[in-house]
Amino acid sequence: LKYSVLALGDSSYPLFCKTGEDVDEQLQRLGATRIIPVQKCDVDYDQLATEWFQQVFEKLNSEFRISDSGLNGNSTESAIRNPELKKHVKKHFEGIITRSVNLNDRGSTRRTWHIEIRTEEDMDYEAGDSIAIIPSNRPEVVEKILALAKVDAEQQVVLAKAEGSIRELLANKLNICYLLGNTVKKYAALTGHEIPDMRMDLVDLLKIYPLNGSVHFSEVLALLHPIAPRLYSVSSSVKAEPREVHITVGHNRFMKEDEQHYGLCSSFLGDLPVDSRISFYIHRNRSFKLPAAEKDIIMVGPGTGIAPFRSFLQERDLEGAQGKNWLFFGERNFVSDFFYQTEIQQYHATGLLQRVHLAFSRDSEQKLYVQHRMAEHGKELFSWLEHGAHFYVSGSKQPMGQEVEETLLNIICDHGGRNEAEAKAYLENLKKEGRYQKDVY
Which pLDDT belongs to residue 260? Predict the structure, then answer.
């Protein structure tokens, strides 16, 4: 076998393109011939992928030409043709935030924003898609970095993937938060410091392991990756208003070394006032789509997982879809954390939502989650599946997504008369039919 691997990944994750590396190593181990080194691509993959395709075709044409014998017996060489590769350019939209509301009521320990963005041109997103937003870094953090680096903030720098003043690069183009272990290692090699194998923010790196006189700050900037886009499921239907898109954003907070930290993009979006301008592009999600209008759907979406299902319900309402709809929603407290409560109650009152089951984990001594509600209504849930319903789950991958799937398998066993292996096969068949779809993160 002669081969080359194009590995797709996201450098914001520690095991960047690890699957592609593993496949490449295993093929080598089994004796295959690598014709082009493995090409690792980040989320902005277009240019590198195009170059990889061109190299592969050139290699095939130069080393592996095929001799064909025509009907007349004459031998001719036929080269493999390099097809014209279409470059997929993401269309960026410029929008204005027309509404930003905290969905959590007084007394809640959380903040979750409903944000409405309006554009000057029609959009073509579908229910189930996301929008991708590239946030800016916090100004106070940028100022700390500039002070520690002791550089001219207005100095112009040209990097491989970005250019501008040092201040502009740090503020809007380069990731300075939670640097990859590999980036920290490169910084250590550059500065001569011995640094543990760990992830760090740039400001902490400069503070604990300062630059020496021989290292220019532009060399540090060259180690940094571009800010990765953050994806947010749309929570509206384009059929309601083609120039408007809604998202549901949970404020990400976490403790690190006894210090409170905040998610970069959720803080960025939450801090933007009404009338702020924002740039974004549509991220298609082909594997999380509504079925035909006559099909029944079961939606499990606790917390911000409700976002795509708000778009599902809005679209089904506008289309007058005949399929039945069943929603499982959960959060901490009924009074303060019931997102889109009025809309959900209205959909139930009009008959669009045939069934709604809620789970508020902090309203009782024993914590109650959506998977517990699923188990309570397991017999009817399995009946819906047997009659062709599509099952969707959206929200946190761990532990919610895993526990919902385990509960679904138990329901198939208990109410479908199947053993564990048969239940897994049943679920696998739902996936193959496109009737079990997940949007978990």
Answer: 67
Q: What distance in Å separates the CA atoms of residue 83 and residue 81, rounded to the nearest whole number?
A: 6
Contact in structure between 423 and 413 (CB atoms under 8 Å)? yes
Burial of 55 (0-12, 13-18, 19+ CB in 10 A): middle
Backbone angles phi, psi at 127, to 5 degrees: -55, 130
Residues of the chain with pLDDT under 70: 12, 64-89, 254-257, 260
- Would you state the pLDDT for residue 75? 42
Place of tokens 């195009």: 50
For residue 11, give the nearest of 51, 45, 46 by alpha carbon.
Answer: 45
Q: Interhelix angle for 341-350 vs 307-319, to 10°?
A: 30
CB 309 within 8 A of CB 236: no
What tokens appear for 428 in the block?
């696998």
Quote helix, strand, coil % in the chain, to nearest 5: 35, 25, 40
DSSP label at residue 304: G
Q: CA 368 to CA 359: how far, in whole Å? A: 6
Tokens of 411: 């329901």
CA pair distance 360, 302, nearest whole angstrom: 9
Q: Hey, what amino acid is at 291? A: P
Residue whose tokens read 């024993």: 366
Name the burial class of residue 417, with classes exposed (0-12), middle (13-18) and buried (19+) by CB atoms within 10 angstroms of its CB: exposed
Q: What is the tens place of the pLDDT at every residue in 118-176?
A: 999 999 999 999 999 999 999 999 999 999 999 999 999 999 889 999 999 999 999 99
| Three state DSSP letters for 64-122 | CCEEEECCCCCEEEECCCCCCCCCCCCCEEEEEEEEEEECCCCCCCCCEEEEEEEECCC
DSSP secondary structure string for all residues of 11-47: TTSSSTTHHHHHHHHHHHHTT-EESS--EEE-SS-HH
Which pLDDT does position 328 carry in this prediction?
A: 98
Residue with tokens 């809309």: 343
**pTM greater than 0.90:** no
Return d(Cα 46, Cα 54) in angstroms, integer. 12
